[in-house]
Amino acid sequence: MINILCVCGNGMGTSTLLKINVRKICAEKNIEANVESCSFGEALSFLPNTDLILTSPEWADMIPATGCVMATTENLIDVPVVTETLLKAVREHFPDELKE
Amino acid sequence: MMLLRELVEKNRVCFHHSFNNWEDAIRAACQPLLDDGSIEQAYVDSIIATVHKYGPYIVFAPDVAMPHSKQGAEGVNNTAISFMKVEEPVRFLEDNRDKDARLFFTVCAVDQDKHLENMEKLSELLTISPDIIGDLLDAKDAKDLLLIDQKYDNPASKITKDKG
Predict the structure, then answer these.
(1) In this predicted complex, what is the ipTM?
(2) Alpha carbon distance A13, A48 (integer Å)
(3) Given pLDDT bands bounded at 50, 70 and 90, which one contains residue A19?
(4) What count of other Cβ atoms lies within 10 Å of the Cβ of residue A80?
(5) What pLDDT, in 10s, does the model give residues B104-147?
(6) Which of helix, strand or coil describes residue B60?
(7) CB–CB of B107 and A13 under 8 A?
(8) Chain B residues whose beta carbon lies within 8 Å of the beta carbon of residue A85
(9) Of the CATH numbers 3.90.1150.10, 2.120.10.70, 3.40.930.10, 3.40.50.150, which one belongs to the domain with range B3-150?
(10) In chain B, what are the domain boundaries?
(11) Distance separating alpha carbons of residues A22 and A75, to the nearest angstrom
């Protein structure tokens, strides 16, 4: 089980879209994950329970460095791109979670 | 696909040729929601201020922007989406054409569940086919949006998904 956090500026728009798409991709790829979203202001309180942060490049630098793995994607609705970003991070850092 | 038809039926769509700057584009993108009372001017100002502060992260894919601020922000009375298409790309950054946009989905929310439902509909629309962005860019009026809705609104092309 991976705890994934999708982060954007206000926790309302882009992070929500990303969460919806990541949930679909995880279901499709048989990745057991708990996917949530929040604003970067709220991210700090979520980080202790997060394994993998997904965000757009704009926010990556503003999120404090922790033990979490960070992956970024420029395009939040290009499903192949988001899928590849997610799979690359999972393959590198959580290989046991991958049942491809 | 229900979102486009819903937006047309609720008069939450508009079409423009060009804008002098992105601030004017956002004001126009918000107009249908201002007109039906979903939002007030304070929310429009807050969206523009957010982009000034953080940059155009609301452009979340090539040509696609989602003007929004916070859930429950000042000047938000409803949970809704509006659509705007601009012929000439709106430039957000002088040195990065990847942040140009012609399709605007303005989003406002007071109700979390309704908002999530709206975002699921938006996600479904924008991921239904690799051709959808091109189809929306070709649309000239509300009638064209209904034709796009019809084109994809059959069970075979629908992405099956659970509500989660």
Answers:
(1) 0.88
(2) 23
(3) very high
(4) 10
(5) 999 999 999 999 999 999 999 999 999 999 999 999 999 999 99
(6) strand
(7) yes
(8) none
(9) 3.40.930.10
(10) 3-150
(11) 13
